[in-house]
Amino acid sequence: MTAYDAQTALNAIHHRQEQTLDAYVRHAHSRPYLIISALGLFAVCSSFDLPSPWKAAAILAGNALTLGGPLVHQRRAPVRRKIVGSEALFYAAIGVLLIALFWTVAIAAYFLGLPARHTLAAAVTALTAMVASYALRPVVGTIIRRNGHA
Predict the structure, then answer these.
(1) What is the pLDDT of residues 104-145, one digit of tens each?
(2) Which of 30, 39, 49, 142 is the 20 to 30 A CA-CA neighbour of 15?
(3) DSSP readout, 74-104?
(4) DSSP single-letter state for residue 116
(5) How far apart are CA 17 and CA 148, in angstroms?
C-alpha cells in the first residue's frame, strides 16, 4: 500500500463519517419530529388553563407526544449514536430557556389581564421551539462534528 492509497482510504473514511453525521442531524431535525414535539409541548403547557378532568387528559396526551414521539422517531433513525456531554448540556440549556420563556409570557399575560394566559404562553413557546430548532440546526451540527462521534 502506497502513501497515496492510505490517504485515499482515510479520506473515504472521513467522507463516510461526514455523511453519517449529516444524516443524523437531518433526521433529528426532520419536520414530523418537530411538529410532534411542538404539539406535545403545547398540550402540556396549555393544560394549566383547563378544568380538572381535561387537564389530566391534556397532560397525558402531551407527555405521550413529547416523550413517545421522539422515542419512536429515534427508533426509526437510519443512524444511531450516543449523545455526549456537551450536546446534552446544550439541549438542557435550550429546555431551561424554553421553560423560562413559557413562564415569562404567562406572567406577562397575567399582568396584562389576558384570558387563557397559559395557552398563549404555550403557543409562543411551541412556536419559538420550532423556530429555534431550525435556527440552531447549524450549531447542533457543529457540536456533533466537534465531538466527532458517529
Answers:
(1) 999 999 999 999 999 999 999 999 999 998 899 888 888 877
(2) 30
(3) HHT-SS--PPPHHHHHHHHHHHHHHHHHHHH
(4) S
(5) 8
pTM: 0.80
Q: Buried (b) or exposed (e) across 122-146, using 16+ Cβ within 10 A?
A: bbbbbebbbeebeeeeeebbebbee
CA-closest candidate to residue 49, choices 120, 125, 124, 116: 116
Cα–Cα distance measured from residue 144 to residue 134, given in angstroms and rounded to the nearest whole number = 16
Average pLDDT over residues 67-87: 79
Name every residue whose Cβ is closer than 8 Å to that of residue 69 and which is 6 or more positions away in sequence.
Answer: 33, 36, 37, 40
The CA distance from 99 to 81, in Å, is: 27
Cell numbers 451540527: residue: 141
**Is residue 57 helix, strand or coil?**
helix
